[in-house]
Please model this.
Amino acid sequence: MFDETHVLDLLPAYALGSLDTDEANRVKEHLLSCWICRAESSAFQDVAEQLSFAAPVAAPSLDLKDRLFQRVQSVRPQPHVPTKAARRPWLERLLPVWGLVSLGLIIALAAFTLSLWQRLNQLEFVTAPGGMRAIPLSAADAASGATGFVIVSGDGDNGALVVDGLPPLDADRQYQLWLIRAGERTSGAVFSTDEKNYGGTRIKVAGSLLEYSAVDVTIEPAGGSHQPTGAVVLAGPLFNP
Amino acid sequence: MKSSADYARYDDEKLISLIAQLQTEALDQLYDRYNRPIFSLALMIVGDRATAEEITLDVFMRVWQKAGSYRADQGRVSTWLTHIARHHAIDVLRRRAVRPDHHALSLNEITPGVPLPAQNPGELAEHSLRRERIRAAIARLPADQRQALRLAYFGGYTQTEIAAALKQPLGTIKTRIKLALQKLRDFLRDEQEPEDKSAQALNTYNMSEED
Model:
């Protein structure tokens, strides 16, 4: 049964990206917990995609492909990142990183049991008391064996990243976390891993993490990049775009 | 060793997985498959060829660098590509703080599609089918709904901006956009069965070509 909290009337404009920010945020938040509106939203997103085919047919210059492959050669992604070293249990590895985040996050996370963490690999995300979520990330081909979690507070204002299975890089390179919204990436953190391939960092971003649809982690020059330039090593969804 | 014909047989998701393994032949094939729809969309939004070509390059560079992060469960490859292209193009418009004059055109004044050479017949047919379906559906909308839809999707305007530009109450614009997309969904759903039949015919054609 529908209730007054549904956002069905807003979904067409949401699919077109024409809602004002407040309304768009309200829809995003609602979609997190409402399968009815998610299904409707998906249908309207499909219609919006079809609109792109209404554009008049045009062809780019014949040399555009050559220009593309010149760029490809100049910005070649870094291939496979080797992995090594034994891995500690998840709970043991997470504890020091949580200390970086906040006392509140630590207290809430302490309620998680080891069995709960083991379940994370099979779930889209787990919501803890207080609304905090832990979202697993998947390894890209460039870093098979790597794993990670993004942990987001209930209000979306705080977050942390923990990774495992990512080897330490040379002094000229660091890992960088990207938050993705509407196809655009914003840097969330630049971090390194230790000799046991483990690392963690607090996520720093203006606004709420609930506004972002996905994350990925790339290898970048030390200090980070304005936009990603290196190979993706981890990626995963956050919240509904 | 794979030939170009092998890559041409792969579906989009397979190509993306091969691009993630840095196979340039797969990127080559994906470019052949989608450069025109992506360029056409970008050109429709930004209005000049040079910028539209830069956007097209950026889309395929993004694919080259981020193929490993593509997740099929979050949408089709074509959805991913058009999403990147549209948002990139609208960002360009917003940075310019002006909208191209061609946004004054009505969507139903779009010129008929012109078949272009050097494209796989199957892909040409599929793109043409999608184009004609959406155009026919748009043409059935009332003019005021087409206008609001055009400004929202191709102009990147919010409903509030559209209301201000057209000097109409915000509620009126919200209603137009809601009705427009609801009707398009219904029209396209009604067309689904004929499309399924066309797809079956196309599959039959492709199978006979392979024989």
